[in-house]
Design a protein that fits this description.
Length: 497
């Protein structure tokens, strides 16, 4: 999954050219007939999306998501409020837009030329590939020519157009089922559970689902990288399209778009089946005993993030010990433990209390110029390789023209601290920057798995309770039969020959 950075370089030029081309049909002020003026007069931007990570989802802190934040900022840019509605699948989304029930779609949607008769798209803000997935430990297909089983896809998805093209050009015997009621996430879960043989989805959605359903495996890419865009209705004035172009040009130039991409997509690339499976097993078997301690001592960060940090350090093993002498669940050094009043590093509660207190102290030292939500990543770098080396990474970022207060910029320079041509220009010299980089990335992936897995367990539990309640209610509709009213019918004796 590669962000379309080249596209961003030309957004400003494209915006200007499109604005000039559309100017005769645009009346930005004093005309309430344009689509944009109607939205401003209404005071609300209506957006439809999918309730799917990382586009729009409920997190421990409220509503999050790449498309949610972008849509919120676009509404602010227009000077209106955001009204966002969620749909279950792509078919419902486009029905909403085509019927005029929403102004735009923002849901990680791939560009689909077949929809361009009545719709327009905004600028690409990242890219994905379409991938064929199957269940882990089943035979891996090498191409669409040798899939053995049923391929099921979402009706109305971009993959339908791709499959038609492939059937016409390369695989004449290719066939598939299209379901109008299920979402791509529904189908991915069914493949992981062995209920379906194959499906096709975008690489980002697959990477997210694999953190909770590691039995989902990628066979191969169906397409090259394709742009992800917002969709709007095609109108004569194109005013909303022009505003969208200006907005994306602005957030690209000021670095907002890069920060949001890093926040939601920067850590989802690598996937290790065994590691993820082991982690999910630990959530079931080990975490319940430690959860109260993380909830008690996590201050300033969510307890699930604290648990992910501890798992990266020790795999929640209270007796973990490294070759360098750090020990315990939070892998504290002897000197750090002494400074925190930790007398027994192998005691889970002391270790968790000490480690999280130390992390809190590091966060308090991070310069106020760093955005509040990004301070944790700078603190974790300091936790792993030392506060002084974290300052060197910021200094190196500034030397190279980057923003030392931006995690997306500093993150790129961490591995340079292992190279003499770079660390020789810093105050504190060589540091294990690559290790620190992986440290933070792994923690973010564990946090993603933990949050998603716990939410999925809650959903399954709620569904089971609902089913039980429905069964109980159904049972009430039948008359109760007392034991003395229930008699077995005596068998009729067979005639003797």
């Amino acid at each position: 999954m590669k962000p379309l950075k080249i596209n961003y370089l030309f957004i400003g030029v494209v915006t200007l050219l499109l604005a000039l081309a559309m100017w005769p049909t645009l009346q930005w002020c004093g005309d309430n007939s344009t689509q944009l003026q109607k939205i401003k007069q209404r005071g609300v931007l209506n957006v439809a999306t999918l309730n799917v990570t990382p586009y729009y989802y409920q997190s421990s802190t409220g509503i999050d998501g790449l498309d949610y934040e972008l849509a919120k900022q676009f509404a602010d840019y227009l000077g209106v409020k955001l009204n966002i509605e969620t749909e279950h699948n792509v078919t419902s989304l486009f029905t909403q837009l085509e019927n005029g029930d929403t102004d735009m779609l923002a849901a990680g949607l791939i560009f689909n030329p077949e929809r361009m008769k009545n719709l327009n798209v905004g600028p690409a803000y990242y890219s994905v590939s379409q991938q064929l997935v199957y269940r882990q430990n089943m035979p891996k297909p090498q191409s669409l020519a040798n899939i053995k089983g049923k391929l099921t896809v979402v009706a109305g998805a971009a993959s339908i157009s791709t499959l038609h093209q492939l059937k016409k050009s390369k695989y004449p015997d290719l066939s598939w089922d299209a379901t109008p009621s299920d979402s791509s996430v529904d189908l991915l879960k069914q493949v992981a559970d062995g209920k379906l043989d194959y499906t096709i989805a975008d690489s980002v959605t697959i990477a997210m689902i694999q953190r909770v359903y590691p039995n989902l495996a990628v066979a191969f890419d169906i397409t090259e990288e394709e742009p992800v865009m917002w969709y709007v209705r095609k109108t004569e004035d194109n005013s909303l399209d022009a505003a969208m172009l200006n907005f994306f040009n602005q957030i690209n130039e000021d670095g907002t778009l890069a920060k949001l991409e890093e926040k939601y997509l920067g850590h989802v690339g690598e996937f290790d089946y065994v590691d993820t499976k082991t982690f999910l097993n630990a959530i079931d078997n080990t975490l319940p005993g430690l959860k109260p301690l993380f909830e008690k001592y996590a201050k300033g960060i969510d307890w699930r993030l604290a648990a992910a940090i501890a798992y990266q350090e020790s795999h929640w093993n209270p007796t973990a010990t490294s070759a360098t002498g750090v020990r315990g669940i939070m892998m504290l050094t002897r000197s750090t433990a002494d400074s925190l009043g930790v007398t027994d590093r192998l005691d889970p509660e002391q270790s968790i209390r000490g480690g999280l207190t130390y992390l809190e102290q590091l966060m308090a030292k991070i310069p106020d110029s760093v955005p509040e939500e990004e301070k944790i990543w700078f603190a974790l770098i300091a936790y792993n390789m030392g506060y002084a080396h974290m300052l060197d990474a910021r200094s190196l970022t500034a030397q190279q023209g980057g923003n030392p207060d931006s995690w997306v910029d500093v993150k790129k320079r961490l591995t340079m601290l292992t190279q003499k041509q770079y660390y020789s220009k810093t105050r504190y010299g060589y540091a294990r920057g690559y290790q620190a980089y992986q440290f933070v990335e792994n923690i973010r992936r564990y946090q993603l798995s933990l949050e998603g897995y716990l939410q999925e367990k809650d959903r399954q539990l709620a569904k089971a309770r609902q089913t039980a309640a429905q069964d109980a209610e159904l049972g009430k509709s039948y008359p109760a039969i007392k034991p003395n009213q229930f008699q077995l019918r005596q068998p009729i004796p067979r005639e003797q020959n």
